[in-house]
């Protein structure tokens, strides 16, 4: 039964690669083409877009009686209705924001639950490997989708309604497959008590810093390409294709590193690389123009974008770290949700602060701030201390 469920979840994760491709390749250009947002307006939009991430711990706590699998079904249903609404029912900007909230709640509700499901289908010593396999399947389809979109919309005008309809249908298909999995036993709770334990304090801090780091790149990295370097949908689709192609191998490799060397090694390495990526974003344009090679700036920015997106794979290490230090197994799902909420508590306001920095001093200083956050992340990651499990000699599914 566990092997069958893992195979089903592998397929579900692969399907959701299509929706992730739509989100990363089209969402920012959808906002730009449909509503012509300024940098300030775009950054303020992150508050309602990320608010569901902040609220997810409260919503998931209310839904704990359903169990992880059924919560994931609810999450995909919400995302489907939200994406459909943005495409077909959003007559103006304010209405679009309402549908965006629904879509975002589905996305954020699914994030911690998906990691919990994978780890429940894994043994202690191969959690990284299983998470890597799931992420690898997701990335493979993400790659195919990005390549398809890049080729199609290089010649054909983008139809955002059709794109969002495809995404909504894919979310529904994923929900149907989830219903075929063996439902996990719901967490028994006394009332609706939120879990916040001092034993998990380092996990909470790691999530807060990740939220700040993530939001800088989710909001400002694409906006630099759009506003500073005038890049369109086909560029994002092609970059997504490159990222996905590399990540098919990179994500399972990160899983291997987690199992082999531990979460501290992976998270500290991510922080070190990210410091250089942030500095690269900040100085590349001025540097290459200063030496008379301005055309190389965009290529270097593309490289920074690709490396940063690949580093997102390290989020697996935060999930496995919690699993290894969990006081009780029933703490895992609600604590992952708490981590997501803390991640977004700061992330909601980072775009607003970053937007002010952009307008006052330029986009470069947004990424210098990102480098400072990466330094803090390195310091915190270096404090991780956990015993390493023995890797089994035979594969366990």
Plain-language structure description:
- Pfam families: MFS_1 (PF07690).
- It is a multi-pass membrane protein.
- Keywords: Membrane, Transmembrane, Transmembrane helix.
- The chain is mainly alpha-helical and 397 residues long.
- The protein has one domain: Growth Hormone, Chain: A (Up-down Bundle), CATH 1.20.1250.
- The chain is 80% helix and 0% strand.
- It is built from 14 helices and no strands.
- Helix 4 runs antiparallel to helix 12 (332-347).
- The longest helix has 34 residues, at 2-35.
- The radius of gyration is 20 Å and the shape is globular.
- Mean pLDDT is 84; it is low at 391-397.
Give a quick precis of the structure.
Helix content is 80%, strand content 0%. It is mostly helical and 397 residues long. It is found in: Cell membrane.
């Amino acid at each position: 039964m566990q092997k069958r469920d893992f195979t089903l979840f592998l397929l579900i994760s692969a399907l959701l690669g299509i929706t992730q491709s739509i989100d990363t390749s089209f969402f920012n250009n959808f906002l730009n083409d449909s509503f012509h947002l300024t940098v300030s307006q775009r950054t303020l939009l992150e508050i309602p877009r990320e608010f569901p991430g902040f609220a997810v711990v409260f919503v998931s706590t209310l839904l704990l009686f359903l169990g992880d699998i059924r919560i994931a079904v609810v999450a995909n249903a919400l995302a489907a209705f939200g994406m459909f609404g943005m495409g077909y029912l959003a007559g103006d900007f304010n209405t679009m924001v309402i549908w965006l909230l629904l879509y975002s709640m589905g996305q954020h509700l699914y994030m911690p639950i998906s990691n919990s499901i994978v780890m429940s289908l894994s043994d202690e010593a191969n959690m990284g490997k299983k998470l890597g396999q799931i992420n690898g399947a997701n990335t493979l389809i993400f790659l195919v989708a990005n390549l398809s979109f890049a080729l199609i919309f290089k010649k054909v005008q983008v139809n955002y309604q059709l794109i969002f309809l495809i995404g909504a249908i894919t979310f529904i298909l994923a929900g149907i497959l989830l219903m075929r999995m063996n439902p996990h036993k719901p967490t028994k709770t006394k009332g609706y008590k939120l879990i916040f334990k001092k034993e998990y304090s380092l996990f909470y801090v790691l999530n807060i810093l990740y939220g700040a780091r993530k939001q800088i790149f989710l909001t400002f990295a694409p906006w630099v390409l759009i506003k500073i370097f005038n890049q369109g949908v086909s560029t994002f689709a092609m970059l997504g294709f490159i990222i996905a192609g590399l990540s098919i191998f990179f994500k399972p490799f990160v899983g291997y590193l987690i199992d082999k060397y531990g979460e501290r090694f992976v998270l500290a390495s991510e922080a070190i690389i990210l410091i250089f990526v942030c500095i690269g974003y900040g100085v590349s344009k001025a540097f290459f123009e200063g030496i008379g090679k301005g055309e190389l700036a965009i290529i270097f920015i593309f490289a920074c974008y690709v490396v940063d997106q690949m580093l997102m794979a390290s989020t697996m290490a935060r999930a496995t770290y919690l699993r290894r230090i969990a006081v009780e197994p029933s703490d895992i799902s609600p604590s992952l949700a708490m981590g997501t909420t803390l991640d977004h508590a700061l992330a909601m306001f980072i775009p607003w602060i970053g937007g002010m920095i952009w307008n006052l001093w330029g986009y470069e200083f947004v990424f210098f701030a990102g480098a400072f956050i990466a330094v803090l992340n390195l310091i915190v990651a270096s404090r991780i201390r956990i015993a390493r499990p023995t890797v089994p000699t035979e594969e366990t599914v």
